[in-house]
């Protein structure tokens, strides 16, 4: 399994505070069945600044530590970029990192609302060949009230990333309900942990996939897993699954089977 959103780098944001924390997170990731993850420290959120070159340097150091401690985990560089008005200038200045050097970037909206120019940013980034992924939309108050606004963003070229803890109730009942609704409605392409700390906020990726499998079926999980792999391999993601499309697929399968029998 691949986790595309984590705060594993030591001492540069509100995730791992030191290298011991990072190594604990890495061991927990391996125990959860994760083989590769992307380090996505906060960037430009008013609290933390972690430019692309700095993140790459930090990832190199962590790789060395992982090798020294014989922890079998691949780590790639990325960022969780707060949506801000200078984003396109920052891209031109090479301050922004894509996820694992791919065409995808991870964007974070403020938790209270959707930025006014959000659709415009998605459109401009898409024209530049960059594919924006919206981090945990289920935790944005405006998306919770108006899920259609997330649909508009996806239609404009963005992708949705759901957090394991939201699905598993870690952020309360309201977010849990909304998280399942967004998956059911086909507005989510990838599941990841947004892990910060082994105890306070770990991975729970396997647990989330197992719950999704029992609620919505294996096809959902396979798509989410394939999409996470597509980021690492810089290939196109498959359309997000939805309850209605999986029902259609099931009907098609039943029809084919009965046609074969008949
Ligand atoms: Fe995050």
Automatic annotation (TrEMBL):
Gene Ontology MF term list: manganese ion binding; protein tyrosine phosphatase activity
Alphabetized InterPro entries for the sequence: Caps_polysacc_synth_CpsB/CapC, Pol/histidinol_Pase-like
Alphabetized UniProt keyword annotations: Hydrolase, Protein phosphatase
EC numbers, comma separated: 3.1.3.48
Pfam family, one: CpsB_CapC
Reaction it catalyzes: O-phospho-L-tyrosyl-[protein] + H2O = L-tyrosyl-[protein] + phosphate
Entry's family note: Belongs to the metallo-dependent hydrolases superfamily. CpsB/CapC family.
Protein's name according to its UniProt entry: Tyrosine-protein phosphatase
Species per Swiss-Prot/TrEMBL record: Paenibacillus albus
């Amino acid at each position: 399994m691949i986790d595309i959103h984590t705060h594993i780098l030591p001492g540069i944001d509100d995730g791992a505070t030191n290298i011991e924390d990072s190594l604990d997170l890495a061991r927990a990731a391996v125990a959860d069945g994760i083989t590769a993850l992307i380090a996505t420290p906060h960037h430009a959120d008013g609290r933390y600044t972690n430019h692309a070159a700095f993140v790459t340097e930090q990832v190199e150091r962590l790789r060395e530590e992982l090798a020294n401690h014989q922890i079998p985990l691949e780590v790639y560089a990325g960022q969780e970029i707060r949506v801000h008005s200078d984003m396109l200038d920052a891209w031109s200045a090479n301050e922004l990192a894509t996820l694992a050097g791919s065409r995808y970037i991870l964007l974070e909206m403020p938790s209270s609302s959707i930025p006014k120019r959000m659709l415009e940013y998605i459109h401009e980034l898409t024209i530049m060949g960059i594919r924006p992924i919206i981090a945990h939309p289920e935790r944005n108050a405006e998306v919770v009230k108006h899920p259609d606004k997330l649909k508009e963003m996806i239609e404009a070229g963005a992708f949705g990333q759901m957090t394991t803890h939201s699905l598993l109730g870690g952020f309360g009942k309201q977010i849990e309900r909304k998280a399942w609704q967004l998956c059911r409605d086909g507005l989510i392409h990838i599941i990841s942990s947004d892990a910060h700390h082994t105890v306070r906020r770990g991975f729970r990726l396997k647990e989330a996939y197992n719950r999704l499998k029992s609620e919505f079926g294996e096809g959902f999980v396979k798509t989410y897993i394939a999409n996470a792999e597509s980021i690492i391999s810089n290939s196109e993601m498959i359309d997000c699954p939805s309850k209605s499309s999986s029902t259609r697929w099931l009907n098609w399968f039943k029809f084919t089977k009965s046609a074969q029998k008949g």
